[in-house]
Amino acid sequence: MNTLELARLQFGITTVFHFIFVPMSIGMACWVAYCQTRWYRSKDEVWLRATRFWGKLMLLSIAIGVVTGIVQEFQFGMNWSQYSRYVGDIFGAPLAMEGLAAFFLESTFVGIWIFGWDKLSPRAHLATIWLTAFGTALSAYFILAANSWMQHPVGYVLNHATHRAELKSIWAVLTNSTVLLAFPHTVIGALVTGGMLVLGVSALGLLRNRQGKGPVDVYSRSMRAVLPLTLVAAIATGAFGHAQGMEMEKQQPMKMAAAEALYNTTKGASLSIFAVGPFEHFPKRLNTDIRIPHLLSILGTASWNGEVKGVNQLNREDQKKFGPGDYVPILGVTYWTFRLMAGAGVLLVLIPLIGLLLIRKGALERKRWFLRASVIGIFIPVLANLSGWIFTEMGRQPWVVYGLLKTSEANSPLVSSSSLIITLVGYTVIYGTLLVIGGKLAKRELAHGPEAPPSQTPEHGEGERTTRPDLILAY
Amino acid sequence: MPDPNFLQTLWFLLIGVLWVGYFILEGFDFGVGMLLRALSRDDTDKRMIIHTIGPVWDGNEVWLLTAGGATFAAFPGWYASLFSGFYLALFLILAALIIRGVSFEFWGKEDSPRWRATWEWTAVIGSFLAALLWGVGWANIVHGVPMNAQHNVTGTLFSLLHPYALLGGLVTLTLFLAHGAIFLALRTSGEMVDRARNVAVRAGGVAAALMAGFLLWTAIDQDTGGVKISALLIGVLAVVLAAAAPVLVSRGRDGLAFGLSAGAIAMLFACLFVELFPAALPSTTSHAFSLSLAGASSSHYTQTVMTVVAVIFVPIVLAYQGWTYWVFRHRLGRDDFEGPLTPIAVLSSYSGKNGHSTDGHRGESQGTREQPPGLPASDPPAAG
Q1: Would A79 be classed as within a structural domain?
Q2: Could you tell me the pLDDT band of residue B359, with boundaries at 50, 70 and 90?
């Protein structure tokens, strides 16, 4: 592996790992804020116990998200110094804004939320969790604005004296059509991620407590509240995702063609459902390809016989425009990450829908197959998030900034491969350890479940319920 | 070297303020982290120590991230040369910050002595390493590093570890140690205060002496245009403040001493920033290769935009971070943390007859005796 590939691998590993926890933290912060609001309004102590139980899971996710986020702020300079010099005039601004406007907000108020239960009025304390949730979402906006500029550069001029892109309109960058779609898609998707976590953990709790021992009220209540919210969010995520796809068809046609493995420009294009080809960057033929007639044209252009451009034609167009080279991303990656994301999206609508039907039949807590499916459901949005992110980043290749700067021209020229290997191994070991320990703590917390209701007097043998080694909320 | 224009100077100043804010705030976090084991007799002490910074350390660290983001936005060339050039050193700092951050989160979540000891050591080592390396790093930035005409640093990790830089590292290490000890004296009560003061006096004295040597070396070391009088004056002030802080601690004036040690940190870095100006990163390979602020800067438009953003948000951030410190202003004492906080302690209290002490969730209400508002006082009721 050369230094460029090592740098890309490192960016991929650190960012993908960080991105496991980002949507989870956003979703869980909103959910905890929701629970606490329900408690604040109704004074029903079930919601208080729900707030504290889900709060612990939220904090685990935020803790790992925050510490791995530190690396994100610096690694553009560390591994991608040419990129930083070339686009820093534009890209740095949303990043700095994220720090000033959003990151301070979430980090400060989550600290007050954890430690401020008995120091603030219930109203002020409720405000701290909402500010935390708002901060996490605002962070996502600035980061996505920066990323959207890489997908679809707007509001800049090329300065030939300084050999870089310079900002002409910050407003154009912050209202880039790409971010206006990517933000709702990502953040509402984060709500789905949190919702499925709540659903799955509740299901797990109900499965374990089927003999009726222990407090199932928090699980049952949470599940019933989160199902409709998750369904609406999942549908909205899909809708915004579809809008993004249509926009991408115009902005990055190559990415969409690669997502569909559509080789040649076609009118009335069919949609490929399942395709495998030889294991190469740009396979010349596909071994298996199952297609639905006309569906791609309908989805991409909203017309029966709409023209969808193919990879081969787009590659030739790009060669004319940008000079000789290969402008095709790795087809197997774009094709399959896109399908994983979209397939997961379908499941994420179906599971809450079935859950709501079961509520109507009054059978939600008794259908063990549904509870089991919900537990597996925890991982489905994570899969969707990661494959979506990998798709949008790897689908942009060979560009780091679409049409402006190639990835191969962006990395730090003098960082040696030994340095890269040391840090790559270092991050992987640290992150891997965090994942193992975080998973272990989460598992233990799930085994213990929420606190017992105050009415449940710990009598003979019930004593250990209240004394179980609980994951404490503060330190 | 070209002179920076007004906005570039302003942003250099603002980034300087962010770094100073970061070092004042996380400086005491580092000191507290380093002292976690040394000043504790038992887990109650440790819990108390962690609680002094618990609500704030995360918010404090954001100052660093914002300094990084602001450097990216205002001086992308600086951001690129600095962080690619100090590659492994920065990695070590980031790794230290990561293990340190999670150690506070993980420490209380399990009860075995091995678990606790592991996360105590990661907190101590992480704090130690970061406190040392920040000084090494900034000494190198001011001193300059081997750098080519394209502003790419050609040195390695080991070329950063020369005596001048190591002295700089020892200055920040001892200064943050003293600063953290004073913070502990200020935020705790009982025996802990005396132990913390003891460390503060000794570490503060060493820090002042090392700082005097380091700043003198800095003044001589800067070969461009002779000695800067302004830097010299600020440096003298830094040493005076650093020397006065331990004296005040020994007289029990913790609050004032904390202000002075914060001032010493501010003046130390102000001195370094003045020495650096108008360069961003000097090259020791050739003067001609040095990176100037003007050369590393982003466009006038970007800096204008960022100025507007900073003018709006910096006061807001300062207001709510200040409010945090106000909310958590009360001194913490052992009696805030005693009682059956740990699961094992709770279990053993059950096996005994003391039904009164079954409050197994006290740890969740931040170690204080009060339950969070609304949590019924009957939770959990007495077993006996």
Answers
A1: yes
A2: very low
Q: Please tell me the total count of domains within chain A.
A: 2
Alpha carbons B99 and A434: distance in angstroms, whole number: 9
Does pTM surpass 0.90? Answer: no
The reply to whether residue A117 touches residue B367, judged by beta carbons under 8 angstroms, is: no
Query: Residue A472: inside a domain, yes or no?
Result: no
B-chain residue closest to A433, CA distance: B99
CB contact under 8 A, A463 and B350: yes
Three-class DSSP category at A156 = strand
Pick the residue from chain B with its C-alpha nearest to A475: B108
Of chain A, the end-to-end C-alpha distance in Å amounts to 43
Cα separation of the two ends of chain B:
79
A161 touches chain B (CB under 8 A): no
| Cross-chain Cβ contact A70/B65 below 8 Å | yes
Q: Any CB–CB contact under 8 A between A172 and chain B? A: no
The yes/no answer to whether this complex scores an ipTM above 0.95 is no
Do residue A360 and residue A319 come from a single domain? no
Q: Does A401 touch chain B (CB under 8 A)?
A: no
Q: What is the pLDDT of residues A368-420, one digit of tens each?
A: 899 999 999 999 999 999 999 999 999 998 999 999 999 999 999 888 899 99
Domain shared by A172 and A225, yes or no: yes
Q: How far apart are CA A339 and CA A387, in angstroms?
A: 9
Asked if A310 and A343 sit in the same domain, the reply is no
Alpha-carbon span B139 to B208, nearest angstrom:
17
CB contact under 8 A, A458 and B381: yes
pLDDT-based confidence at residue A215 (cuts at 50, 70, 90): low
| Boundaries of domain holding A273 | 253-328
- Report the chain A residue with the minimal C-alpha distance to residue B115: A437
In order of A58, A201, A453, A463, the CA distances from A449 in angstroms are: 14, 9, 12, 15
- Residue A246 within any structural domain of the chain: no
pLDDT in tens, B243-278: 999 999 999 898 999 999 999 999 999 999 998 888
Mark yes or no for CB contact A103/B379 under 8 Å: no
CB contact under 8 A, A74 and B153: no
| 8 Å CB contact between A107 and B317 | no
In this predicted structure, which of A166-175, A372-381, A436-445 has the lowest mean pLDDT? A436-445
Is A343 found in the same domain as A266? no
